[in-house]
Amino acid sequence: MSYLELLRLAAPEAIVVLTAFVVLTIGLVTGRREAGDTPAATAGLGALVAALGLAIAAATIVRLPGHATLFHGMLVVSPLNSLFQVIVLVLAFFTVILARGERLLPNKGEYLAMILLATVGLMLLIGSEELLMIFIGLELTGLSLYVMTAFDKASQTSAEAGLKYFLFGSMASAFTLFGLSLIYGFTGTTSLAAIGPRLAEQALPPLLFVGIVMTLIGFLFKIAAAPFHLWAPDAYQGAPVSTAGFIASGSKVASFIVLGKILLIGFGPVSGSADWHGLIAGWTPILAVLSALSILIGNLVALVQKNVRRLLAYSAVAHGGYTLLGLIAGGRAGFSATLFYTTIYAVTLVGAFGVVGFVRRENGGDDLADFAGLRARSPLLAGCMAIFLLSLAGLPPLAGFFGKFYLFSTALRAGANHGLLWLVALALFGSLISLYYYLIVLKVIFLDENAQATPAVARYDFEMRADYLPKMTLLVLAGAVLLLGIIPGTLVARILASFG
Amino acid sequence: MVTLGDYLFVSGLLFTLGFAGVLLRRNLIIIFMSLELMLNAANLSLVAFSRFRTNSLGQPNYDGQVFVFFIITVAAAEVAVGLAIIVALYRARRTTHVEDINSLKF
Amino acid sequence: MSPFFFWTASALMLVFGAAVIINRNPVASALSLVVSFLGLAALFMSLDAFFLGIIQVLVYAGAVMVLFLFIIMLLDLRAEERRRINFVAFAGGAAVAVIFFGQLYLVIGHLHQAKLPFAPLAPMQVDDVHRIGLLLFGSYNLPFQIIGVLILVATIGVIVLSKRELH
Predict the structure, then answer these.
(1) What ipTM was predicted for this assembly?
(2) Were B45 and a residue from A132, A324, B7, B11 both cysteine, which residue would form a disulfide, CB within 3.0 to 4.6 Å?
């Protein structure tokens, strides 16, 4: 394999890294004349270049060959990987634009560069089927997200959120690493495609099973499944809003796809079964328990939240639980249901955090009270938020409804004799609870009066004229959520076709 | 005779020590050091497996050693970022004690 | 690898590893960490991984410990004063750790490979630095490049997070 071939296949990643260099340089040469915030022109130019670089990278992915494998699976080009790399790039694109509307952070150039480098990590996570490369992708993503979480030094809570994210993240990656060392030890390989057959041919020593479970911990941490979710509420609440949105969307999509590939390609032979009557030891029963736990904890704790970002975090735990259903069901159908659900969830959350970002900039906070009377102040934002939240709750005709329907029906059909019925019933019950707390947020937005009547002049201009671009982005995202609910078949067909 | 099991035993013990440190200590700097112990326990078992799985030519399986090489690099980068976060936090709060870091809760 | 050497190095590593988490004074912990990793490096060498043993000493004694000490001095941390320990949490944490290790111990005991001795190595034709280097620039080239990106992330992150803003 020549270096040229490597460069050709890794061109999308290389383009994003180069873009990060350019953005850093822009921040370096144009900023910092006055103390404090980054000059608006610098931030604008940086965001423009970053968005452009992401778009070029996405275009490059489309032009890659259909199938290629480099170094025993360290870099795999396949329709599935390419599709999700493009999705992650699109999510990063929206994050960059929405970060534009955020209160100007000092060091905006570095912030944008971090978003881009985190995106490189996510692309590698998606594009790799080799354990070492996956670990490095995990760490690259993790480190950049820790830094982004702690980025806002003007905020009291940002560093604290970053610290908690870092502590839980490093502990999870230590567990994963120990698990990986055991898997390497018993199979003698780190390539996912080779691990599967070796697991199938030998009787499973218990130590290897310990290794598999420890490996999974790192990914369950990333998707914030209970009981590995403790970082999520703090990180979502304390981080800069666009970072929180990116953690909830891009990082989650990549983690689910890599989790799915590890489970179904690598550990497929030791899956076991979580059927109510036919429990078989393996990773499936463990995932089923965690999924049930996530659905319960996420939904119940979300009921008592007073802060919208914290509420979204706990609901993210619950949604992580639903999404695991597809992996428990297994097979192509289950995996595609998981991927579809996590994609629309990511699109919805980027939008929801975009709205939160606007409200936070106007009111200085993101508690439920800060959303009071949002309808009167900005019908556009209120309408978008309504679409996002109702989709999360799973009401037709929005995308969330179809996603849940697809996921739950796949899970029902999977086991013999509707063995997963218990879990699906639990998930339906959880969705019912979630409807209640989403409606509370909407009630505050649409029905409550704003307690402290805002003096219209002193506030940041909250109308359509300002921040044209981020608001258009929110509209596009809301439109996408609506459209994916009405004609979900296009995306589902693409995902299914990409399995090849 | 020293066997693979002995190495795995020692490595498991080191991992547990680190894990216990993370769970029991309340000083952030010491928690970070305990995380290092956990990572290095993984390194030890990787090297032991790499030596155990010799190929037909009588060479160790170098994949495991390269893995360790990468982990050492990643661990160093991780320590640097973690300590920088502590510095940022210390500037805001004047503490490195876990129990004092509690402004985010419901 | 003689059993005497193995158990001496292991004892060194584990005793000082325990000292890391027992010491009240962070400086003492940092120094114990280094001694513990010297023991680990010796274990690497007992497994014929000489290059990794040396890297381990260089990186941990040379860089990581200095970083820890630097931060401890910068923040002027003293030995922490005795706080009232939350006994429920402490007992819970200790129980989790003990159960975890018990589990691991049982599982290792069950392993039939664990009782096999290591196969002898062929006399080395080329040194392991050479072999690892070839792998890094051959089939591990992509992760090697990505590690560079990761270090860039760490560099930017550390500078941004730890510098003082000019307000």
Answers:
(1) 0.94
(2) B11
